[in-house]
Each structure stands twice: as structure tokens, then as C-alpha cells.
Amino acid sequence: MIHWGFIGCGSVTERKSGPAFSIAEGSDVVAVMRRDVDKAKDYAGRHGIGKWYDNAGDLIRDPLVNAVYVATPPGSHAEYAIAAMRAGKPVYIEKPMAASYKECLEIIRVSEETGIACFVAYYRRTLPYFRRVKELIDDGMLGKISTVQIRFAIPPYVADYDRDNLPWRVKKEIAGAGYFYDLASHQLDLLDYLFGPVVAVQGFVQNTARLYEVEDTVTAAFQFQSGVLGSGSWSFIAPEGSRTDRIDFVGTKGKLSCSTFDFSPIVFETETGMQEFAEENPDNIQLYLIQSIVDYLNGKGDLPVSTARSAIRTNWVMDKILGYNL
After folding, report:
1. DSSP secondary structure string, 253-321?
2. What are the structural domain ranges in the chain?
3. What would the pLDDT profile of 13-45 be if each residue is shown by its tens digit?
4. How far is 243 from 153, CA to CA, in rounded Å?
5. What's the gap between Cα 150 and its chain centre?
6. Which of 40, 110, 54 is closest to 79 using CA atoms?
């Protein structure tokens, strides 16, 4: 039985992930930690969890906890993941894996040194929606894939205008970068899942609106080891009416379009016509990945599809796009 302790119990754990740890067979949650102990106690009470802490070290040392979920902002992922692994406890880290590629390297070094497993919450790899995308591509229905293009645009959030209280996702020291690090990580990991590692990448970055110090506009071009060419454009300051969430795959026999976040129907187009595919995802969207991790840790399943080794590649690509010194 895997007895989880959560370091961090904010909004992502309310529905996307938290309940899945108790729903998964062979798994439960025995403790949570948050620096605000009242919020930790409240979360524990609402979710039927017996222990709560305001110190991560205390949770990690709890003898009842034998696996740790790190659900804090990326700036503290490496610290907590490394502490848990040094205590002999497997780790499941929220994405992105850490606030930089260099921190990811240290996480992997400690995982290999200790022999303790480390996984990352790129759960889209397990969702029926993206499994369908992979199936259509792998079955050759598009022919040979030549290009893939990410287009993503959203308007600023209301909180982005509050210079005295900006969201943590636009504070580099906490998030690693801006919204690009938070949102594009899902898209780039998905493409890694479909086509394998990126081997060459170039990015261009702007801070156009100056609402905060990090980037608000990004473009990139990249090439996969498989030979597929890709590009992407991300705007986090778009007008309200121009919201875009789309990935286009172009092959020699057809074109496939899907979204990353709104799960609009997958559109498959060839010279013979157009088909649409709709897939349902679990209510707690991380459930399938969490179940696969629990099965693996319980000795009942194969290695899960999202590990530290796969996740670090996305941090490398993002840091290259942003021009960080690797």
C-alpha cells in the first residue's frame, strides 16, 4: 500500500490530483503539509486526511508516509524532491519538474544515487484524448508527419494588472519563468511523447506589455530526433476575442488538429473527408497517471510514461527557447 504525503495542498490538489491518490487502488493519503497550518488543517479535514503539518521535513520524516507528492510552485520542487528521496521515499512532482534544467539534473542525480524513483505530473500522456491523437499518428493515417505547429494565445489574467500582488506564476524566482513555463510545458511534453526528444531548438522572447518582469510573448522552432519539424507561438497578452488553443499536425496523407487545455474534438482531415473524435477524461484528471505510478511502486505494473528522465527534456527545451544559460 502506498501512503502518500502531500507537500503543498493548494488549488491543483483540490480536484485535478488530490482525490485521485485516494481513488487509486492500492493508495491513500495520510498527511498533508502547507506553511499556513490552518489551511493545511482545513484541507485535511475536508478530504478526510488524518495528519497535517506546516513543515515539509516533519512530513517527510513521518513513518506512515512512504511516498511524497510535491505540489508546490517549481522554485521549491528540487529542494523537497531531493529531501524525500534522501529519506528513501519515491516522489511525484508537479510539472514542470523544476524551475530550471540545472535543478532537474540535480533531482535526477539524487534519484540515481539513492535508487529512489521520481515521477513528474505530465498526465496528458495517459489521457484518452491524447492517446487517440497518438493512435491516429502511429497508425500512419496521416502518412509521414512533416510538421507540427503549436498556437496558443490567452488574454492577461485580472491579477496580472496588480503590480503589488502579482501571481507567483509570473515571478521567475518562484516559477522559473512566466506563464510559458507553466503552460507550454504541457504542450512540449506532449510532443516529446508523440515524437521523441527535441534535438535542436531556437526561441525568441519578448516582454511586450510590461505587466510583469518575465516574458509574455514567445516563438520557437524545433526539430525532433525523429526528423519532424515543429514551431510554436505563445501569447499571454492576447485580446479576449483571439483566444487560441491548437496544435496542428501535418502529414503526407492528412492533417490532425487538437487542443491542449479545452479538449475540443480532435479533427482529422484527409482528401476523402473529415472526421471528429471526442474522448472523455477522468473527473480527477491525473488519475490514470497516478494509478500507473501506484501500481509500479506496488510491484504490479510497468514503468509509468512520465518519469524524471522524460520530464527533464521539456525543461531543457524551455530553457533553450528562453535563452537561459545551460
Report:
1. SEEEEE-SSS-PPEEEEETTEEEEE--PPPSSTTHHHHHHHHHHHTTSSPPPS-BHHHHHHHHHHHHHH
2. 2-124+285-307, 128-280
3. 999 999 999 999 999 999 999 999 999 999 999
4. 5
5. 16
6. 110
Mean local confidence (pLDDT), 290-307: 98
DSSP state of 22: H
Query: Same fold for the domain at 2-124+285-307 and the one at 128-280?
Result: no
Superfamily assignment of 128-280 in CATH? Dihydrodipicolinate Reductase; domain 2 (3.30.360.10)
pLDDT confidence tier of residue 242, bands split at 50, 70 and 90: very high
Q: Which pTM value belongs to this model?
A: 0.97
The pLDDT confidence band at residue 325, using thresholds 50, 70 and 90, is: confident
Q: Which residues of 51-70 are buried (b: 16+ CB within 10 A; e: fewer)?
A: bbbeebeebbebeebbbbbb
Question: Torsion-angle region of residue 234: left (phi > 0), alpha (psi -120 to 50) or beta?
Answer: beta
CATH T-level topology, domain 2-124+285-307? Rossmann fold (3.40.50)
DSSP string, 109-175: HHHHHHT--EEE--GGGGSHHHHHHHHHHHTTTT-SEEEEEEEEE-PPPGGGG-TTS--GGG-HHHH
Query: 27 - beta bridge partners?
Result: 2
